[in-house]
Amino acid sequence: MTKRDFKPKITVFYCEHSGLLSADMAIKSGFVYPESVRMIKVPCSGKIESIHIMRALEEGDGVVIYACHKEACQFLRGNLRAEARLAYIKNILKEISIEEERVQMYYLSPSNGVKFTRTLSTFYEDLKSLGPNAGRAEE
Amino acid sequence: MIVGERKPMQEILDMIADHKKIFIAGCGTCVAVCMAGGDKEVSILSSAIKMARNKENKPIEILEQTPLRQCEWEFVDELKDKIEACEAVLSMACGIGVQTLVERFPKVIVYPAVNTTFLGLPEEQGVWSERCGACGNCVLDKTGGICPIVRCSKSLLNGPCGGSQDGKCEVDPEVDCAWQLIYDRLKTLGKLDDLTEILPPKDWSTGRDGGPRKIVREDMKL
Ligand code: SF4
Ligand code: SF4
Question: Rounded to the nearest 5°, which phi and psi values hold at B119?
Fold first, then answer.
């Protein structure tokens, strides 16, 4: 497979208080998800456990988390927990020599379709340049 | 409880480098509470190992299970089928759990994935600290309930030493001076006079210096 043909398989975990509304706005403005992107809605980014990120990476090429801005979490500290878990996962990835850039987190206000489109498109292109996740299981 | 932490990934990967099918056994008690070897940590380790091995083009099959405790025969017996189906076991329990498996399944290779670190408590979520060195002859009655053996960096029985500064230990300014804590606590209890009693040199034969320890209760035997 050449880099041009490679379609990164991405799991997007998005908080329903920010990411969901932003994703809706992005779609209404004409954004089309690449087909290899899987969207998973969560009630709060703090609900995403480390194992969810690991499993998504085990069967894909990248993981994105969309959370509410700091100090704007509906559950007060959910986004800070998600951030700390992501740092923990990045450490494990470093230990096993898998690129840390494969997991990213972005903070959004509700209805920021522009930022949603820009960050997801950039992440997709970055993963295309990075190539497939060497740790991913064979399909 | 027993507190531990996962070994570095490279050390774990080196141990299991020659195996194609392993069983990761967690423990649902102490190491689950200190978030080093409960079922969540087992799944995360399993996922990390699989990715590391896929990367090397040496995929590995992993079975997982977390018994309630890995230090009791009746709980490790539940693991028999999975142990027998694999080439080796990676234990995420403390060193006691590892040795329980070794004694129960003498022909099986068991590797430790966790460094057993100390006996302590969770001070708050995500923070654990040492409280007891299992010396075998507790002196907490003399020291206001604060252990001088593990909380004093020098295990002084009659402290503090000259390095105690502003309530902190000279070994590490982040660490409270145990003898300051003992003094403060005895003062609160109105028992400062207790400090005039000089504790004699400790008989360490009840601790590690006396060799491996064992307790036998004839009244409890079946
Ligand atoms: S095996 Fe170790 S960690 Fe598990 S319950 Fe027993 S003492 Fe605690
Ligand atoms: S004095 Fe000995 S038994 Fe008592 S808490 Fe300290 S180390 Fe543990």
Answer: -100, 120
The minimum CA-CA distance between A108 and chain B, rounded to whole Å, is: 27
- Measuring CA to CA, how many Å separate A18 from each of A27, A105, B25, B97, B214? 14, 13, 39, 45, 59
* CA–CA gap between residue A51 and residue B50 (Å, rounded): 13
Which protein residue has the closest C-alpha to ligand 1 atom 8? B30
What is the pLDDT confidence band of residue A34, given thresholds at 50, 70 and 90? confident
Separation of alpha carbons B139 and B149, rounded Å: 9
- Tell me if A64 sits within 8 A of A105, measured CB to CB: yes
Ligand 2 binding pocket includes B133 (Cβ within 6 Å): yes
- DSSP tally for chain B: helices H, then strands E: 8, 9
- Interchain CB distance below 8 Å, B51 and A51: no
pTM, to two decimals: 0.94
Report yes or no: A45 and A82 within 8 Å, Cβ to Cβ: yes
Residue B147 in contact with ligand 2 by CB distance below 6 A: yes
pLDDT score recorded for residue A32: 87
Domains contained in chain A, CATH given:
10-130 (3.40.50.960)
Q: Is the CB of B98 under 6 A from ligand 2?
A: no
Pairs of residues, one from chain A and one from chain B, whose beta carbons lie less than 8 Å apart? 52
Angle between helix axes A78-95 and A50-58 (nearest 10 degrees) is 50
A139 touches chain B (CB under 8 A): no
- Whether the CB of B7 sits within 6 Å of ligand 1: no
Q: Rounded to whole angstroms, how far apart are CA atoms B143 and A65?
A: 50
Q: Which of B48, B50, B54 shows the shortest C-beta gap to A134?
A: B54
Q: Which fold has domain B2-118?
A: Rossmann fold (3.40.50)
Q: Give the residue extent of every domain in chain B.
A: 2-118, 133-210
Q: How big, in percent rounded to 5, are the helix, strand and coil portions of chain A?
A: 45, 20, 40
* Span B85-138, pLDDT tens digits: 999 999 999 999 999 999 999 999 999 999 999 999 999 999 999 999 999 999
Q: Quick check: A130 and A102 in contact, CB under 8 A?
A: yes
